[in-house]
Structures are given as structure tokens and as C-alpha cells.
């Protein structure tokens, strides 16, 4: 147990001092992020199993491996995990087998086993997600056992060379042939080539393929189909299939992201994924309740990404905070000992708001997950889909906001570790390169912001007509009666300040849209001409949601007073950090005055000072195992300098005193200049 470990494990004196006085129960916080005591126990049990298993160690640091070695090493571990989890009796109490694997890959532990991606990530994420969320019960009975057991490995292939964002523009076709009761899957152009899917290059034997459904010359839009790509046993690509890997990326280089082309590949009609839309044998198309239900796997993944980036921020803040408590530099007072860098207010301003952000993200992600589950329940019951626009808008808003905040936050954590933060052994570079693509995949963020804006403008118009509003925009109902200025600076006052700013921004942009329309501009062009403003208002609305959820989560919190108190401080810090960052917006909308901004900035300084003594304890409470951190700077013992030195010794260049390259290139140059 983390609490007990504190008593017995070695750590450097600086960290001992930090840990000596803790005002709250760390274990209670650990349980929050695990989703309950039982989950904490399960995670720790899994940790003990996987981190003591030599088969899950890397033979050399992955940074020194070739492209092929990295892929092979991660695939080896992923398959080992699957086999081990299928049979290990210790795992039976968490469902054993596939359930245990799913459990692990849906937790922070996946980042500990697979440090730079995992060839089976899309299999466990979107392929299984598509089977469970998009297939009929009959289809699930056929496909789920095969996918769970690893008999087939799949991925989700939607993006093409020519189109990622604009789904309706996909070019891959699935044409129904009623004579043979088959679909013909085809890539008519170079730009129709599927491009990017994880695990597609060399790993997957099957794929869910998004293709334009054509029946008797009519296009019914993009629909998902299951296609076999590789033969059983030999794994050779099947006739009509051209498949391979797309080459090195900024990060996640073990994922074998791939390309895929189809040359009139025939699949049975029943391989269309048919929970929502169907094609009958005679070619009749059965419409879904909403055309957007086939986008459901993306929505689920956007929810998952909110948690995933939160875990990345937990790792980065733990590393940077511990390092800030161990690192001494410069002078606060002339002639005095060099202080821990965490004593500098500017350093506190780097780490503490990011620690607070972890909580903010977690609570908002949890609410989003519940909305997702409610919508799923309604879909399964066949009841109305009223909440679908709310779910779409909130999942777009939070995925876009959190992927941006966390990527930026990780960058700040790296800078906060000075030069050592740039070393691969700090793990901050890899945490960064694994997180930044979340701003692009599963919906490029600008595009998602524009989806949110579309929802906001629609809701704003609805509000002015007194119409029904979705929960996240219920506050629009007051928009005509409210004055803009807020008078109290409490958390609820600041939340209200955000509400008023969103409304003020919406009013202005709606007016501009109207004006362009009156001047004869087509709506789509007017929209484009206002889109920078539209993205801005969507971002402020998203920040409002997160602040609001944080305050609401604490209002419901029933734990100890110590934890409650520290979370109140973190919530306050998050609110003031956000508002002061956005003060231009809040001032412009008239929600705040310059004097109020000054008061908030003063309070921000006081909060940083109040939270400073708790910083290390706060990140300890995330309870991240050293294997999860994988960092010379962030390990629990704080033995930073020995770790840095030992890692440097692993560089292959240090195997010999004088490398061959010297004799080949440098020596001739140096000799010729003698
Ligand atoms: C403690 C428990 C923890 C559990 C945690 C579990 C953690 C799991 C870990 C997760 C790991 C994450 C690792 C992820 C790896 C991911 C790999 C990446 C995979 C991919 O990238 S797959 C490809 C993704 N591609 C995209 O996202 C494409 C983006 N484009 C689109 O989504 C759409 O094309 C777009 C932009 C929405 C436009 O669609 P379009 O059809 O053109 O729609 P319109 O703009 O015309 O709008 C029409 C109308 O429809 C509404 N709409 C659109 N989409 C949806 C939707 N999905 N749902 C509901 N409604 C939707 C839209 O709002 C419009 O409505 P109107 O009423 O205004 O008309
Ligand atoms: C690491 C990684 C893993 C991935 N894994 C998968 C996977 O497993 N399966 C899969 O199918 N795909 C996958 N993708 C693809 C990913 O989903 C797409 O790259 C993403 O949806 C963005 O689409 P795009 O590349 O076409 O970008 P584009 O849409 O071409 O974006 C380029 C620029 O154009 C702008 N833009 C585009 N449309 C608009 C608009 N309407 N309004 C304003 N601006 C616009 C964007 O904001 C952006 O600045 C992956 C991508 C990455 C990076």
C-alpha cells in the first residue's frame, strides 16, 4: 500500500521532508482516481503481477532500438499479456482472461507496459468497441469471442489519404451485389487508400472499414463493414488487399499505423456492421434512428481520450513536482543555501495548476462517461435519442480542451525540469509525443471546436425562442435578462462569469452571422468568415463546463474533511488560474472589472503559497508506480543524479572509448590539419 510504503522505502532527504507532514489522507485521493477502493486494490495487484514479470521488461531501452525491434518488442509483450491473462489463476477474481486484459488496457497500466504505443491498442480500443457498440446481438455472438481470444486481431480503418475530417467525403465504396448477397469493397482512387489506422500495417488480420454504402446506384453514406485482410495462420495479405505500414511518426512508433487498398474485395452481406442500419438480402436499406449512430465508436473513443490524457498529465506532474522538490538552484537570498526550485513562485505556478487540472479533467470526464452510458442505455432500450447532441457536443468539447491543455501542460512540465527534462530518460519527451497526436486523432481539434460552436449557435437561437435546451447549455435560458457584471468572486460567481462571457460572445458572433446573411452571403460562407470567433466561444464554453463540473463534484463529495479541504483549494486554484488566463475575454464581455482581476491575481499567489507544502504529497497520492513513470527525474526515491548518470551509461556510444566513426571520419580530418 502506498501509505505504508512511505514509512519503509528509501528516499532522498528533500522528499523525506516533503512527505513528513501531509494534511490529508493520500489513500482516499488514490481511490478517487482509481474509481473506488476495490479498483485501487485490483490495480495494485495487477501491478505486482506485471512489474515482477521479467518477460514484460524491455531488453534494452526502446530509444536504442530500431523501428523493427520496437514493433517486435511491443508485439511480444502485448501477446504475452494476452496469453498470461487468459490463464493466470490470480486474475480470476477480476473476471480473468479478456475481462482482465480489457481492465488493464483501460487503465494507466497500459502506459507502463507499452511505453511508445502498442500494436494491439486499436484492437482493444476501437475494434472491440465497434463490435460491442455497433454490431447486432447475433453478430456479436459470432465476432466477440474470436476477437476477445485473439483468434482474430482487428483495427478501425476510417481515415483515407484524401479525407480524415470530412467523413462524408470518404471514397472507399461498399457496393451491394444482390445476386451473390455480397458487398464489393473497393478503393477507386489513390486518395481512397486507408491511411493511419493503428495496428493496420502488419498486425491486424481483420478491420472495421468505413465505406460509402451503394445499393442499386444510390449512395447511403459512410457505414462500417468487417473485412478480412490477412489469411488465418500464414497471415499473408488476402487477394485484392494491399496493406503495409506508413513509416516513422513523431511518436507512438510501435503502433504499425498502416495503409490499405481494396481491389474489388467481396465480403458476405452479413459482414456489414448492423446494429443501427441494415441491408436486407433483397437490397432494402433499413435506416437507423439517427444517421450519426454509426459514428458511435468515435464518440466512445473521445470519452476514453479524456481519461487517457489525464493519466499522461498525472505522470508528467508527478515527475516535474518531485524533481522540483529535489532540484536546488540559484539563490533566494544572497549567500544562503540554494533553495529547492519549488520555492520559486514561478515554479509553483508551473506545477500546481497542472495538478489541479488533473482533478478538473477527471471530474468532467466522469460526468461525460455517465452521459455516454445513459445514451447507450437509451439506444439499447430503443428509447429516444434526445441526449445525442449533448453527448456529441460535450465529447467534442472535452476531448479538444483536454488534449490541448494536457499537451501544453506536459510541455510546461518539461520546461520546468530545465535541461534534464529534454532527456529521453526523464520520459517527458515520450509522454509529450504520445499525447500531442490526441489533438489530431479522433477528430482534429479545430474541427471539433466548430462542431461545438454549431451546437452553441443552434442552442442560442433556441433559447431566444424559449425552446428546450440541452443540460450543458441550460444556462442560456437567462441570457436576455442577465446583466453581464458579476459581483461576487466565489467559485459559483466565477462560473457565472464564464456563462455571461459565452453568452456575450455568442451574441456578438450571431449578430455578425446575421449581418453577413443580410448582406447576401451564403450561410456556409458567413460561418467560415466567423469561424475564428466561433472556435473562441466554443473554447470558453468548454472551460465553463469543466469549472462547473469541478465545483459540482466537490459539492457532492462525502469523504474526509482533510481531503475535502485540499480539493477545495485545488478547485479554487483551477478556477482562478483559468479565469486569469482568460481575463481578456472576461473583461471584454464585462463580466469582470480590472480591480476584480487584480484581486484574483493576489489570491492566486496566496493559493500557490498555501498549496506549496502539499505539492509532493498531492502527486504521491496519484500513486503512480515507478514503472508507470519510467523517469530518472520522477522516481519515488528522488535519487535523480545517480539515475541520470546510470542511464547515460546505457548509451551504446559509451560501449567503447573511441568509436569506429572517429577512425572513419574525424581522424583523417584531424590528421590532415596537423
Ligand atoms: C475509470 C474508467 C476509465 C475508462 C477509461 C477508458 C480509457 C480508454 C483509453 C482510450 C485510449 C485512447 C487511445 C486512442 C487511440 C485512438 C486512435 C485514433 C483513431 C482515429 O482517429 S479513428 C478516426 C477518427 N476520425 C474522426 O474523428 C473524424 C472526424 N470527423 C467527424 O467526426 C465528422 O465528419 C464531423 C466533423 C463531425 C462532421 O460530420 P458530418 O457528417 O459532416 O456532419 P455535419 O457537420 O454535417 O453535422 C451534421 C449533424 O450531425 C451531428 N453530428 C456529427 N457527428 C455526430 C456524432 N458523432 N454524434 C451525434 N451527432 C453528430 C452534427 O452535430 C450535426 O447536427 P445538426 O443538428 O447541427 O445538424
Ligand atoms: C497517431 C494517429 C493515429 C491515428 N489512428 C487512426 C486510426 O486508428 N484509424 C483511423 O481511421 N484514423 C486514424 N488517424 C487519423 C486521424 O483520425 C485523422 O488524422 C484526423 O481525423 C484528422 O484528419 P486529417 O488528417 O484528414 O486532417 P485534415 O482534416 O486534413 O486537417 C488539416 C487541417 O485542416 C483543417 N480543417 C479540415 N477541415 C476543416 C473544416 N471543416 N473547417 C476548418 N478547418 C478544417 C484542420 O483544422 C487542420 O488544421 C490517426 C491519426 C494519428 C495522427
Summarize the structure in words.
The protein is of the alpha+beta class. Among the domains are: 153-288, Butyryl-CoA Dehydrogenase, subunit A, domain 2, CATH 2.40.110.10; 297-470 and 484-619, Butyryl-CoA Dehydrogenase, subunit A, domain 3 (Up-down Bundle). Helix content is 54%, strand content 8%. It has 24 helices and 11 strands. The protein has helices spanning 2-8, 13-20, 26-34, 37-51, 67-87, 97-105, 109-113, 121-134, 137-149, 296-326, 345-381, 388-416, 428-435, 445-464, 491-518, 523-529, 531-556, 561-581, 583-588, 594-611, 615-620, 626-629, 640-648, 660-672, and strands spanning 154-157, 173-177, 182-186, 194-195, 206-215, 218-228, 241-245, 258-262, 265-268, 278-279, 285-286. Strands 1, 2, 3, 5, 6 and 9 form a 6-stranded mixed beta sheet that branches. Strands 4-8-7 form a 3-stranded antiparallel beta sheet, with no helix packed on it. Strand 10 (278-279) and strand 11 form a beta hairpin. The model is unreliable at 1-7 (pLDDT under 50). The structure holds ligand L6B7KVET and flavin-adenine dinucleotide. Ligand L6B7KVET binds next to helix 10, helix 12 and helix 14. The site of flavin-adenine dinucleotide (FAD) has 22 residues, from strand 1 and helix 14.
Amino acid at each position: 500500500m502506498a501509505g505504508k510504503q512511505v514509512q519503509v522505502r528509501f528516499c532522498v532527504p528533500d522528499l523525506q521532508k516533503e512527505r513528513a507532514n501531509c494534511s490529508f489522507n493520500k489513500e482516499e485521493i488514490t481511490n478517487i482516481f482509481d474509481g473506488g477502493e476495490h479498483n485501487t486494490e485490483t490495480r495494485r495487484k495487477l501491478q505486482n503481477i506485471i512489474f515482477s514479470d521479467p518477460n514484460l521488461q524491455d531488453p534494452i531501452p526502446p530509444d536504442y532500438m530500431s523501428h523493427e525491434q520496437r514493433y517486435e518488442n511491443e508485439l511480444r509483450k502485448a501477446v504475452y499479456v494476452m496469453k498470461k491473462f487468459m490463464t493466470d489463476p490470480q486474475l480470476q477474481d477480476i473476471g480473468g482472461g479478456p475481462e482482465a486484459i480489457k481492465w488493464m488496457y483501460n487503465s494507466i497500466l497500459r502506459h507502463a507496459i507499452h511505453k511508445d504505443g502498442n500494436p494491439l491498442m486499436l484492437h482493444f480500443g476501437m475494434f472491440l468497441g465497434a463490435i460491442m457498440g455497433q454490431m447486432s446481438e447475433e453478430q456479436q455472438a459470432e465476432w466477440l469471442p474470436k476477437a476477445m481470444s485473439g483468434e482474430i486481431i482487428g483495427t478501425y480503418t476510417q481515415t483515407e489519404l484524401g479525407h480524415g475530417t470530412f467523413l462524408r467525403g470518404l471514397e472507399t465504396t461498399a457496393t451491394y451485389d444482390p445476386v451473390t448477397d455480397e458487398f464489393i469493397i473497393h478503393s477507386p482512387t489513390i486518395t481512397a487508400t486507408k491511411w493511419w489506422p493503428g495496428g493496420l500495417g502488419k498486425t491486424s488480420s481483420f478491420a472495421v472499414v468505413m465505406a460509402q454504402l451503394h445499393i442499386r446506384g444510390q449512395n447511403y453514406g459512410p457505414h462500417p463493414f468487417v473485412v478480412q485482410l490477412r489469411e488465418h495462420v500464414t497471415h499473408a495479405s488476402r487477394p485484392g488487399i494491399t496493406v503495409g505500414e506508413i513509416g516513422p511518426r513523431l511518436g507512438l512508433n510501435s503502433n504499425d499505423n498502416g495503409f490499405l487498398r481494396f481491389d474489388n474485395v467481396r465480403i458476405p452481406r452479413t459482414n456489414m456492421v448492423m446494429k443501427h442500419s441494415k441491408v436486407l438480402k433483397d437490397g432494402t436499406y433499413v435506416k437507423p434512428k439517427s444517421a450519426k449512430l454509426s459514428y458511435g465508436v468515435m464518440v466512445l473513443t473521445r470519452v476514453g481520450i479524456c481519461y487517457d490524457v489525464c493519466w499522461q498529465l498525472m505522470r508528467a506532474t508527478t515527475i516535474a513536482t518531485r524533481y522540483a522538490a529535489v532540484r536546488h538552484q540559484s539563490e533566494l537570498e544572497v549567500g544562503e543555501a540554494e533553495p529547492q526550485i519549488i520555492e520559486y513562485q514561478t515554479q509553483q505556478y508551473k506545477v500546481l495548476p497542472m495538478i489541479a487540472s488533473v482533478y478538473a479533467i477527471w471530474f468532467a470526464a466522469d460526468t461525460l462517461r455517465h452521459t455516454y452510458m445513459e445514451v447507450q442505455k437509451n439506444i439499447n432500450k430503443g428509447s429516444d435519442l434526445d441526449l445525442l447532441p449533448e453527448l456529441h457536443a460535450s465529447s467534442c468539447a472535452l476531448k479538444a480542451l483536454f488534449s490541448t491543455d494536457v499537451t501544453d501542460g506536459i510541455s510546461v512540465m518539461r520546461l520546468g525540469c530545465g535541461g534534464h527534462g529534454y532527456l529521453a530518460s526523464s520520459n517527458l519527451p515520450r509522454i509529450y509525443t504520445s499525447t500531442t497526436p490526441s489533438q489530431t486523432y479522433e477528430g482534429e481539434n479545430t474541427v471539433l471546436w466548430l462542431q461545438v460552436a454549431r451546437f452553441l449557435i443552434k442552442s442560442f437561437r433556441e433559447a431566444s425562442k424559449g425552446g428546450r435546451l440541452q443540460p450543458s447549455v441550460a444556462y442560456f435560458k437567462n441570457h436576455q435578462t442577465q446583466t453581464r457584471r458579476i459581483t461576487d468572486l466565489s467559485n459559483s460567481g466565477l462560473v457565472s462569469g464564464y456563462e455571461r462571457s459565452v453568452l456575450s460572445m455568442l451574441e456578438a458572433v450571431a449578430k455578425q452571422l446575421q449581418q453577413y446573411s443580410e448582406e447576401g452571403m451564403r450561410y456556409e460562407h458567413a460561418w467560415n468568415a466567423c469561424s475564428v470567433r466561433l472556435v473562441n466561444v466554443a473554447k470558453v464554453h468548454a472551460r465553463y463546463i469543466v469549472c462547473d463540473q469541478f465545483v459540482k463534484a466537490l459539492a457532492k463529495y462525502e469523504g474526509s474533511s482533510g481531503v475535502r479541504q485540499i480539493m477545495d483549494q485545488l478547485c479554487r486554484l483551477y478556477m482562478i488560474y483559468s479565469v486569469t488566463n482568460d481575463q481578456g475575454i472576461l473583461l471584454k464581455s464585462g463580466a469582470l472589472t480590472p480591480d476584480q482581476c487584480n484581486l484574483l491575481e493576489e489570491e492566486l499567489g496566496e493559493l500557490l503559497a498555501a498549496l506549496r507544502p502539499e505539492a509532493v504529497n498531492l502527486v504521491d497520492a496519484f500513486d503512480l508506480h515507478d514503472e508507470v513513470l519510467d523517469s530518472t527525474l520522477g522516481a519515488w526515491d528522488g535519487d535523480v543524479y545517480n539515475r541520470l548518470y546510470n542511464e547515460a551509461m546505457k548509451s551504446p556510444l559509451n560501449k567503447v572509448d573511441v568509436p569506429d566513426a572517429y577512425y572513419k571520419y574525424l581522424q583523417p580530418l584531424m590528421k590532415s590539419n596537423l
